[in-house]
Amino acid sequence: MGPLPRTLELFYDVLSPYSWLAFEVLCRYKNIWNVSLQLRPTLIAGIMKDSGNQPPALLPRKALYMKNDVRLLGQHLQVPIHLPKDFFFVIFEKGSLTAMRFLTVVKLEHPELLEKVSRELWMRVWSRDEDITEPQSILAAAEKAGMSTGRARELLERVSTPQVKNQLKETTDAACRYGAFGLPVTVAHLDDETYMLFGSDRMELLAHLLGEKWLGPVPPAATARL
Amino acid sequence: MGPLPRTLELFYDVLSPYSWLAFEVLCRYKNIWNVSLQLRPTLIAGIMKDSGNQPPALLPRKALYMKNDVRLLGQHLQVPIHLPKDFFFVIFEKGSLTAMRFLTVVKLEHPELLEKVSRELWMRVWSRDEDITEPQSILAAAEKAGMSTGRARELLERVSTPQVKNQLKETTDAACRYGAFGLPVTVAHLDDETYMLFGSDRMELLAHLLGEKWLGPVPPAATARL
């Protein structure tokens, strides 16, 4: 028996394109590195409010840069990311509250589907420029991830229950306690230390901290599985 | 004869620790990749003003994160970076105007020493917590980089001339025209496209854009030369 796997917590919101990038890279590495990956659906709006941070896209030059950066990283990381046409409307008006509450219920009831449902929501909003706020949008993502329509409807009915609201709030608070001022946040629990890494661009550093090999954003095993 | 090297411009300020990280990685790769590296001393205060951006350290959680991040990246990248004790005083009160004007004269008169003098200034402020604003501090860095005291004094006398002031302003304006909202900025001129990359964490992406190999932040050739 080898050493126990180290735990990685990934705090993410499907409204955040950099969260998608981190998510895909960690999902590729979870079977390569000796780690246990815990996906933690979080509300980015809650993080911004609690930390006093502003979304980077509010500064015009950052918004312009981000559009190019996300496009280039998508190509490099082989994640089919495409910016929604009305970026500001999607991020600042529509938001992700129901979607993230839905993922919270999925985690509680069907943790085995959390990765797939999360990915389908990103595919909608950050690849095909489709809505993720209406009930039928969320149901469509759940079905595409392999959940039955009936079960998806049952879970969707629970998004406004105190249990689910509180769970999402608790996860968001936990990210804040780790020092989050945006998402994604990866928390690595090593034998004697805990590291909080912000963004999708600390994965090579994470490998270094874990004492694991960095094989680039598309490691050979991940390619083989596609 | 192989293909002509592509040009990389690195816009940097010695007040910026992430600039130092990008600088060392690019200095390691300039002899490994088929590139010509142009070092461009820039004033970060001018970039922040022109873009309307705020230094990240003004947000308490970002300041806290940055301290850890810089420490971890320094270890991973093997750059002997240590935060000055009074971080805020160094960045917000003392600044880097004279130092960056001095590097501007060095680039004009002794481009072959620019890399070394820049590194010695970073070693002062971001490794040994020493001043970089007083004349004797700048002279000490220049001498450590191999410049004679007499020559360093001559150059220092020129930091307030219109030629030098204008040159630093022009370089800062050039970075802004590329869309800079902070430093470092790496501009990669490829055959048919120009890419602007912000920060020290786009080096693997840069390798991808150049069609060159990423061998980690400390490539074997760089280790061999140490």
UniProtKB/TrEMBL annotation, chains A, B:
The active site is at 16 (nucleophile). Residues 7-210 form the DSBA-like thioredoxin domain. The keyword Transferase applies. It is an enzyme of class 2 (transferase). Keywords: Transferase. GO terms for cellular component: mitochondrion; peroxisome. Pfam families: DSBA. GO terms for molecular function: glutathione peroxidase activity; glutathione transferase activity. Its EC number is 2.5.1.18. InterPro entries: DSBA-like_thioredoxin_dom (IPR001853), GST_Kappa/NadH (IPR051924), GSTK (IPR044088), HCCAis_GSTk (IPR014440), Thioredoxin-like_sf (IPR036249). Gene3D superfamilies: Glutaredoxin (3.40.30.10). GO terms for biological process: glutathione metabolic process. It catalyses: RX + glutathione = an S-substituted glutathione + a halide anion + H(+). Coiled coil: none annotated. Belongs to the GST superfamily. Kappa family. This is Glutathione S-transferase kappa. The lineage of its organism: Eukaryota, Metazoa, Chordata, Craniata, Vertebrata.
